[in-house]
Every structure is written in structure tokens, then in C-alpha cells.
Amino acid sequence: MQSSMTQSVPDTDTRLDASSRLGVEIRSVNSRFLDLAFRLPDELRQAEPALRELLIGKLKRGKIELRVSLENASASSLRSPSSVTLQRLGSLEDSIKSWLPQAAALSVADILRIATNEDKKPHDYSEELLKLAEQALHELMAAREREGARLARMLLDRTAQLRALAALAVPMVPRLVEQQKARFLERWKEAMGLQGNTTLPELAQDRALTEATAFAIRIDVAEEITRLSSHLEEIERLLSAGGELGKRLDFLIQELHREANTLGSKSASLELTRISVDMKVLIEQIREQVQNIE
Predict the structure, then answer these.
(1) Looking at domain 147-290, does it have CATH number 1.20.140?
(2) Percentage, residues of the chain above pLDDT 90
(3) Strand 62-72's sheet: what is its strand order?
(4) Which of 189, 188, 192, 190 is nearest to 207 (CA)?
(5) Which of 6, 83, 138, 252 is 20 to 30 A from residue 217's alpha carbon, by CA?
(6) Do the Cβ atoms of 144 and 2 come closer than 8 Å?
(7) Beta strand pairing status for 62-72 and 20-29?
(8) Which of 53, 45, 13 is nearest to 122 (CA)?
(9) What is the mean pLDDT of residues 84-92?
(10) To 5 degrees, how large is the angle CA 219–CA 221–CA 224?
(11) pLDDT for 170-229, tens place per residue?
(12) Beta carbons within 8 Å of 234's beta carbon, 6+ residues apart
């Protein structure tokens, strides 16, 4: 299982030669879809399609930013212009001024920059960049795997807590039915003026049993508990199997929330209401983390 929470792979770099260094950094922020952004130097723009294909092949969701830095120490070093270069620049400047008298003269900085870049052939760093990007992507995937394992442990802890709450709710319904049945019988005694008697007429007992049965049907949450347990088993199975499970977990969380809501609506006691509320809190915690899972 992989997580697509906020991740940042430290700048992975390599030295190309004595004066050049290439660096790659990949940042990942949670998102329901795959959103790619590239920050590349102009001289490496041609590598963007290959980088895009590399990321799409490995990542399914997340807002991904790939930054590339290219440092060239020789570009900032000063180089003494040769006499040939100075003569050629002077000739070209005179020729330009003959046509454009208002043209500004070359400055010392202009001459030094031209001399530094003279005879400098652009180098294609695409191959080195792709290798470095693969390394950075591998590190990002490893970080996601570690985060995914941590999330799986947290989710399994929450499912265990939900099971414990469900186990508390199961024996409550029979007790509530017996309590309600006793209340019905007591009301019949009061209504018929039989408080001092230990027995009731057969009609009164039948009516009490009928009311207790109807009450039991109204508050019965056995089906909700069974379905909730089934959803929890499926969540645990998916977490154990791994792979891409974000969307399936999303659906199961919705089903868990529906069962917890129904349990709360059928509640006939404060204890059962509290169990329903506690379940909703745990389910919401699970929902928040599931958004970070591919």
C-alpha cells in the first residue's frame, strides 16, 4: 500500500564533470488525481516529455512537482578575451554602428560574457537527467511505501476499536427489550389497579408481550452490526493484500458511516447512542486517512 501524503525527496544530484552539477527534487502532495508540474532550466526543457512519461508510469495520484537544477561553475568564471575575439567584436561593432548610429557600444561586461561563452557547445544532459529522475522517483516510492505501512497500522487499530464498540452494542438490545417489557407490564398493572397483585390477566400479558415484540423489532440492530463487521473484514483484507485500494476503501467507509448512522437512529438508550457517536468519530478518522492512500 502506498501513501500520497505530503512527501519530499531530498535533492538528488550528481556531478557531471569538474564544473557542472545536476540536481533533481520531487515533491508529492495528496490529491485525488495525478497532477504533474515541472520546474526545468531552459536547456533541459526538451526532457520534459520523457520525465512526464516516467512519472505517469509509476504514480497514480498526487500533486507532483519535479524540480531540476543545473549548476555550471564555468559559466560564472571569467575568461580573458583573445586578441582575435576583440578584433572581431570591434569590427562587428563598427559595422553595426555604420548602419545603426544610435546603437549602444559594447560594455566590458558584454565583452566578458561573449568571451566566456565563445566556442562553448551546448551539452545534452537528457540521459543523465532521466537516470537521476529515476533514482529520485525510486526514493519517493520507498517513502510512500513506508508512509503507507504506517497508515495501514493506524487503520487496523481503528477497525479493532470499531469491532470492540460493536461487541459492546450486541448484548444491549436483549437487555433493553426485557427492560421495556417490564415497563409495559408495570404500566398495565397501574392502569388496571393491580399494583398489589403478582399476576396479570392473560389479555394484559399478551398486550405487553406484543408491545415488547414491536419495540424489539424497532431497536434491533443485529443486521447493522453484521454488515458493519462484514465491512471491517473487507477493509482488513484489502489492507493485508495491498495494492491500489484508495477508491475501494472510500466506498467501504461510506458503508460504515451508513451503518453507524442507522444504529444511532435506532438507539433506545444513552449507552447505545454513545457507541454510535464513538463509531462515527473513528470512521471519520479513517476517512481522513483513506484520502491519502492510492
Answers:
(1) yes
(2) 16
(3) 7-15, 20-29, 62-72, 34-39
(4) 188
(5) 252
(6) yes
(7) antiparallel
(8) 45
(9) 82
(10) 145
(11) 777 677 666 666 666 676 666 666 555 555 566 666 666 666 666 555 656 677 788 888
(12) 252
**What are the b/e assignments for 214-252, b being 16+ CB within 10 Å?**
ebbeebebeebbeebbebbeebbebbeeeeebbeebeeb
Provide the 3-class DSSP secondary structure of residue 263. Answer: helix
Q: How far is CA 48 from CA 38, 44, 56, 123, 131, in A?
A: 7, 8, 12, 16, 14
Is pTM beyond 0.85? Reply is no
**C-alpha cell recorded at residue 265:** 437512529
Mention every residue, 6+ apart, whose C-beta is less than 8 A from residue 142.
Answer: none
Strand ranges, E, within the chain: 7-15, 20-29, 34-39, 62-72
Q: Which residues pair with 60 in a beta bridge?
A: none
Domain borders along the chain are 80-117, 147-290
**In this structure, what C-alpha cell is assigned to residue 102?**
544610435
